[in-house]
Design brief:
With 320 residues, the chain is mainly β. It has two domains: 38-62 and 76-233, Jelly Rolls; 245-319, Immunoglobulin-like. It is 3% helix and 43% strand. The chain has a six-stranded antiparallel β-sheet with strand order 10-9-12-6-15-16. A four-stranded mixed β-sheet has the order 1-3-5-14, with no helix packed on it.
């Protein structure tokens, strides 16, 4: 079992309290620093989608743990065991939702080399339901995360391609590896009766739950401040205008669009099912037939919307 220290932050200095361990990694302590919840604002104001920031805010007392000598570092971040990844397991999911991004709340961020930090989603296709393949990623510079921490802000990332949830998954952060670069997350303080959801990847590539006896032990039932943002379309209804048509559909790239004649410009929006605009253009209202090339967009389902402010046409578009 790994060794631990508990840190609860209520005042400006830290008092270490040793937590007894019997097997696995070395002893740890908990901080005197306690995290206050911040309001999440401006994450998604598009009324065409319904989004949820999973597990925010965390229940319980939010603190962080650090290692006691001879160990160095943090349970939820970089440490002398050279852990590679810190991740959270999400067993429940909503069919039809997709993960568009992630919010992480770091307590420690130090940058010397300013590497790009990878945030990722793993499926559970590994042995015995452990993390398998990476299915979505986004990166952010470590220096920008340092700025977030110093400003007491969340770190937010948006995936290039949303991941459609099909089963349990893991969400986490790949830790920096160069000397002087450090990250650590806040986490929920261990209490008896709570079932922890925190996982980590060791330097040998193996995955372990924090509460595994070979890791931090059964007395480490915690959850880290990693919050995937899941969205589903709830209010983009298909509305057919009799003078509008789109073909072919499904399409492989070039799409032909016919519209009504208008005295105003006609705006075309191609939106992902999470409500993000993937393609947008305006055309003179006198032009009623045109082609657009969407071959640069990832394959998948989209919503196409035509509007001149008075009339509107919207329908689903499939790119193959």
């Amino acid at each position: 079992m790994k060794p631990i220290i508990l840190i609860i932050l209520t005042i400006l200095f830290s008092v270490s309290v040793t937590t007894g361990q019997t097997t696995g990694r070395n002893a740890i302590a908990v901080s005197e620093k306690v995290k206050s919840s911040l309001n999440l604002t401006g994450l998604d104001e598009n009324r065409s989608v319904e989004c949820d920031t999973l597990r925010y805010p965390l229940s319980g007392e939010i603190i962080y743990y650090y290692m006691l000598p001879p160990g160095v570092g943090y349970i939820t971040g970089n440490n002398s065991y050279k852990d590679k990844v810190k991740a959270e397991y999400f067993a429940s999911f909503e069919v039809g939702s997709s993960i568009s991004g992630m919010i992480a709340d770091f307590v420690v961020a130090k940058s010397v080399n300013n590497p790009q930090i990878t945030f990722a989603i793993w499926n559970n296709a590994g042995p015995d339901g452990k993390p398998g393949a990476i299915v979505a990623t986004a990166t952010k510079s470590l220096s920008s995360i340092v700025t977030d921490v110093n400003s007491e802000h969340f770190t937010t990332v948006t995936f290039d391609q949303p991941y459609t949830v099909t089963g349990p998954f893991y969400a986490g952060v790949v830790l920096p590896t160069q000397l002087g670069d450090t990250l650590a997350l806040w986490c929920r303080k261990h209490v008896a009766g709570y079932n922890g959801t925190a996982w980590e990847q060791w330097d040998n590539g193996a995955w372990y739950a924090f509460n595994n006896p070979d890791s931090w032990g059964t007395n480490m039932q915690t959850t880290m401040t990693i919050h995937p943002v899941t969205c589903k379309t709830v209010a983009i209804d298909e509305h057919a205008d009799p003078d509008a048509s789109v073909h072919p559909n499904p399409a492989t790239g070039v799409v032909n669009i016919t519209t009504w004649k208008s005295a105003e410009k006609i705006r075309l929006d191609i939106m992902t099912l999470t409500g993000n605009i993937a393609y947008s253009r305006s055309f003179p209202g006198a032009i009623t037939n045109f082609n657009i090339d969407l071959s640069q967009l990832p394959k998948g389902a989209y919503m196409l919307r035509l509007s001149d402010g008075k009339r509107q046409h919207s329908q689903k578009l499939i790119l193959e």
